[in-house]
Amino acid sequence: MRKRNILNLIKYHCESKDYEFKNEAHEIAKFFDSNGDSEISEYIMGLLFEVDTFTPQELDYSSDLLKATNFINDKNQPLPLPESIAYDIKGIINAINNNVGVNKFLFQGLPGTGKTETAKQIARILNKKLYVIEINNLIDSKLGQTNKNISSVFKQINSLKSENVIILLDEMDAIALDRINSNDIREMGRVTSTFLKELDAMNETIPFIATTNLFDNFDKALIRRFDSVIDFNKYSTDDLILIAEIILNDFLKKFKNKGRNMVLFKKIIKNMHSIPLPGDLKNLIKVSLAFSDKDDEFEYLRTLLKNTDNKYMNINNLKEKGYTVREIEILTGISKSQVSRELKGMQSYEGTK
């Protein structure tokens, strides 16, 4: 973020240029997100577009290795997951409520499949404080220091009030390498061993969730330490279309000036060459809404199509993909009568060949 961003923000506010103000604030939010401060980034976006999100508050406990995150307790916020994954998550919630020592859960899957957000949602649903292990601070270049840090953070975890917390170790790949992998260095093998030892000794009443994008490279002894491994790579095309609809419906509660045309929206999603996974899908829909003219109820649909289909202005292409004349009017801004004339002209031209 540069001084220019702040100066522009003040300027646009003073000049009552709402659209430019929001664009500049969005750039600032992206800066914080790219620098690892997603909490501030999401908070800014929430202020701009009235989206429920994390709210920075005074924390009960925090250290360089373990940080608490307070957020708005919104149990009605949707958790769009395929039925098979949702069933597993309900089981985890039941296990935590039963408090019988089944407390270690591993979420594995591609980036954007919802692993981290699901951990946050579990904390929301159970009304518990989410503590996040700071993986970047955990790993240290000094010989032996990483082992000390692991022991230290688990000591901090075990000192917490177990009935109030959930622990999240996000993207734990750096400390979960296979100890017999020839590409692994000896120091990291010792790190994994230390982690195994601390995980075994952890307070069984404290829920522990870890996430990974590289499950196949995990130390098998480490996998056995978890009570359950949840696979997030289970999204079908129908799942993603339904999830997109859930995401849009949730956003439209805040963007009250936007029109609702779910048939057209789902058609755009279905026609995508490759439907993004939920994390990217949510960002795509949010940006399409955020960057659309507040006085144009359907511009977000045009923006969504433009970002996913470079041929979006080609009337014949849209017709071939199954869009109606009315839908083409919405997506191109060309009147129905003109769309009909152009389509008839194309058909006549094809007929003369």
Automatic annotation (TrEMBL):
InterPro entries: 26S_Proteasome_ATPase, AAA+_ATPase, ATPase_AAA_core, P-loop_NTPase
Domain named AAA+ ATPase: residues: 101-236
Source organism per UniProt: Mesoplasma corruscae
UniProt family annotation: Belongs to the AAA ATPase family.
Keywords, comma-separated and alphabetical: ATP-binding, Nucleotide-binding
UniProt name for this protein: ATPase AAA
GO MF assignments: ATP binding; ATP hydrolysis activity
Signal peptide bounds: none
Lineage: Bacteria, Bacillati, Mycoplasmatota, Mollicutes, Entomoplasmatales
